[in-house]
Design brief:
Keywords: Kinase, Transferase. This is Choline kinase. With 283 residues, the chain is an alpha+beta fold. The protein folds into two domains: 9-78, Phosphorylase Kinase, domain 1 (2-Layer Sandwich); 83-281, Aminoglycoside 3'-phosphotransferase, Chain: A, domain 2 (Alpha-Beta Complex). It contains nine helices and ten strands. Helix 3 (93-113) crosses helix 7 and helix 5 runs antiparallel to helix 8 (228-255).
Length: 283
């Protein structure tokens, strides 16, 4: 409420849903804004300078609400009215057909709009770093790490060389807002340079798309149905996305102070990773 950008701030109220930061909605001079409150989270490689750079690049190409003020640990932006999506929304064919062009625009235009230093979001580096953090912290999950890291090595080899684009890298359904006439993509904590396959795989895994939905998503994105080689690379990246989410939650069990059941989230994502890995091995 004391930020210098406001003239007559009023009616602050917390918004639910954040699991890496706190979000507050407030009104100033008849307009509503959202303020994201949260510092760097080194154990998750979340650096707020990077979030701001990725957010501003996405803003420049019209994908995310405008930033009105930023300082360390604080990001204030326009509030947008709309419906936060859930997994069932994303699985709807008509909605998926609206989401895919959004990702295509991000991947085609976002990198050119970046300014200043930004991070590379390479899932296999992150998984290795998470493993070191878990070992150092004496996590109960340490006995599983050798198996998980071997799987990561196999998946990285299967994915092979990649194109590099600006990725969102955290495509939970709740990070998409349907404003009726358009979609907004929000929350750039994990934004950074990455393969476009990661966003596609993350969207599919987080929404639990069935295989026909995944193939349609890829066909819309690519303009043609994926061949067997690309499908295998995509499934490998989906496994990597689920592995990273699993290990993100394992690390959060050690370090997060937010009120969230990370233990249950770890178990849920580990089960989904195991299922996806079985699919990959069958290809």
């Amino acid at each position: 409420m004391a930020l210098p950008v406001w003239q007559a701030p009023s009616d602050p109220r917390p918004l639910s849903g954040g699991i890496t930061n706190l979000n507050v909605r407030l009104t100033d001079r008849g307009r509503d804004y959202v303020v994201r409150v949260g510092g760097d989270i080194p154990e998750h490689q979340v650096m707020r300078f990077n979030e701001l750079a990725c957010h501003r690049a996405a803003q420049a190409i019209g994908l995310t609400p405008a930033v009105v003020h930023a300082e360390h640990g604080i990001l204030a932006m326009d509030f947008v009215e709309g419906r936060t999506l859930d997994a069932a929304n994303v699985r709807d064919a008509a909605m998926l057909a609206r989401i895919v062009p959004l990702l295509r625009q991000l991947h085609d235009q976002g990198r050119a709009a970046l300014r200043g230093p930004v991070l590379m979001f390479w899932v296999f580096h992150i998984v290795n770093d998470y493993a070191a953090t878990l070992r150092a912290g004496g996590s109960a999950h340490v006995p599983a790490l050798d198996t998980l890291l071997q799987a990561a090595t196999d998946l990285e080899r299967a994915i092979g060389p990649v194109d590099v684009v600006l990725g969102h890298n955290d495509l939970l359904p709740a990070n998409l807002i349907d404003a009726g006439d358009r979609l907004w993509l929000i929350d750039w904590d994990y934004g950074g340079l990455n393969s476009p396959l990661f966003d596609l795989a993350g969207l599919a895994s987080n929404a639990e798309l069935p295989e026909d939905g995944e193939r349609e998503m890829l066909a819309q994105y690519l303009g043609a149905a994926p061949d067997a080689a690309l499908w295998r690379r995509y499934v490998a990246m989906k496994c990597a996305s689920l592995l990273r989410e699993t290990m993100w939650s394992m690390v959060s069990e050690l370090h997060s102070t937010l009120d969230f059941d990370y233990g249950a989230y770890t178990a849920e994502n580990r089960a989904r990773f195991d299922a996806a890995l079985s699919e990959f091995k069958g290809l």
